[in-house]
Amino acid sequence: xxxDTASHIARIERDGYTVIEDFLSADVLAEVRRVLALYxxxxxxxxxxxxxxxxxxxxxxxxxxxxxxxxxxERVLALCDRFLLPNYLLTAxxxxxxxxxxxxxxxxxxxxxxxLPRPRPMISLSTIVAVDxxxxxxxxxxxxxxxxxWDEERASAQYSFRPGHDENMESLARQAIxxxxxxxxxxxxxxxxxxxxxxxxxxxxxxxxSNQYCQPWAxxxxxxxxxxxxxxxxxxxxRLQALLGYSIHPPFIGQVTASHPxxxxxxxxxxxxxxxxxxxxxxxxx
Length: 286
Description:
Elements: H1 5-15, E1 17-20, H2 26-37, E2 54-57, H3 65-71, H4 74-83, E3 89-98, E4 124-130, E5 142-143, H5 152-155, H6 165-175, E6 177-178, E7 186-190, E8 195-196, E9 206-214, H7 224-227, H8 230-235, H9 238-243, H10 272-280
Antiparallel strand pairs: 1-7, 2-3, 3-9, 4-7, 4-9, 5-6, 5-8
C-alpha cells in the first residue's frame, strides 16, 4: 500500500501525532533486535527522567547500517519536509528499553529546552519505533492528543517547579493515553506534543528506539560530530552526513572556518587553523 503522506500530515496537524503501522518489515525488525542485543544491559538510566529501571543506548545511528536506512526512511523524511525547514538535522537517535517495575516518565515535550513561547510551530519532529509491541501495561509511550497546540500556561506544568507542580503533573498524566501499537510500528509526533514513557507493570521489558529531527537552526541534542566516529561518518550516504551536520543552512550556519563541513570528512583533510598557523609561523596553544 502506498504511503498516504497527506493523511499523516493532517493527523499530526490535528492531533499532534500519527502512527505508521507497517514501519519496519519483519527482516529489518530482526536485524534491529540483533544489533541492540549487543549494547543492552550496560546503560541504566541515571535519574527519574531517563528512568532508573530503563536502559538507553545513545548515538544509535552510528551503531549499525540498519539504522542509517531507518533514519533516511522516505516516509518520515516526507513528514519532516512538511514541518521543518530545508536542511533540517537529526537531533537524537537512541534506543530505550523499559524494564519491569519502571515508574511513569514525567510528562514532557521533546523540544521544551528551546525556550520559545508556546503555542509555536514545531522545532523538532520525533519518532518512536516499537521493537516490542506497546501495550497498556508494559510501558507504552503515553501521549496527550492535541497538546501540541497548548499555550505556555496550559503546558507549563511539564517544567514548572512552582508549588503545586506535583498536582499539575498528576493532572497531565490523567489526560494521557497509551500509544498501543504492534512491533514494527512507529509513532511520529510534534516536538511540542506532551508525552512520556509509561509505567511497566508487566513481567517483560519493552524495547523501542527514537529518531528525532530538528530545524536547521536549532542545536541538536546529541553532538554527532563527536559521537559518531569520523571513519563511520565517512562511509555514510551524503544525505545522512547532511543530517548529522555535515551541511550548510544558508547563508553560512554550520561552516567550519569559512569552509563547507563536508570537507572535514576527506581522508587528506587538514584543519585550516592548524595549516594557517604553521604557514604563518605562529604557535598554537599547547
